[in-house]
Amino acid sequence: MTPETTQPRFEELLRPVARESTVSEVAKRLLDQLAEGRLAPGTRLPSERVLAEALDVGRSTVRGALSALDILGIIEIKPGSGSYVRQTTSDLLPQTINWGLMLGQPRTHDLVEVRQFLEVITAQLAATRALDEDIDRLEKHLRRMEEAVDDVPTFVEADVAFHLETAEIARNSVLSDILHSVRSLLQVWVARAVRADGTTATTLAEHTAVFEAIRSRDPEAAGAAMRAHMDSASGRLRRSLVSPEAGAEAS
Questions:
Q1: Residue 37 is part of which domain span?
Q2: Do 106 and 176 belong to one domain?
Q3: Does one domain contain both 127 and 50?
Q4: How far apart are CA 233 and CA 230, in angstroms?
Q5: CA dist 151 to 25, 155, 157, 194, 208, Å?
Q6: pTM of the complete model beyond 0.70
Q7: 207-232, pLDDT tens digit by residue?
Q8: Domain end marker among 89, 121, 156
């Protein structure tokens, strides 16, 4: 019989980071361990104090790093309870890491701005290239949003699916790959913004305008409708997001 091996505790696997390290660097250190599957979905992470001691950083820095991972959808922070590994992990985690860790830095708004332009171009191409069967698929996502106006998680899933379907209809592999690579980020963004403002009805109306323009094969109208949606959605997003680093500085 082979002797039983004792698995090291999560915090024992972490190495101290330099004092000048940013919140982003701490988030990467935590992510290295989480990405290796050392903790099962639903597992509670060690406390901020324990993590801070293991990494040799301040608790405010750990708090900021955890907030960044929460925004990414990798962990879930439950007030008064702790931080937990999410039940599901994106199958595109390696791609989203490079984008997602920007959320702990001032470049957050730049990333939001890039997404706005990508979505507008995608809608214009979709209106130009949509086939009848494409319109049918896109409409199913819109109808699902209609049915879920009072069910935020389902509404968010349908919202994200609508955007990804639009990218598929555009038939541009680069645009499609980029939007797929930020899928988990996009879902968390939408969920935060919709929950914060309770604007499922407004969001639905904006998507309906985009859909109608694509169905009419009117690229100019599709671009305008998506631009209006992005302006509105980005405003909601900016109001709902709290910079982890700003939070760390204020602590």
A1: 10-89
A2: yes
A3: no
A4: 5
A5: 36, 6, 10, 11, 18
A6: no
A7: 999 999 999 999 999 999 999 999 98
A8: 89
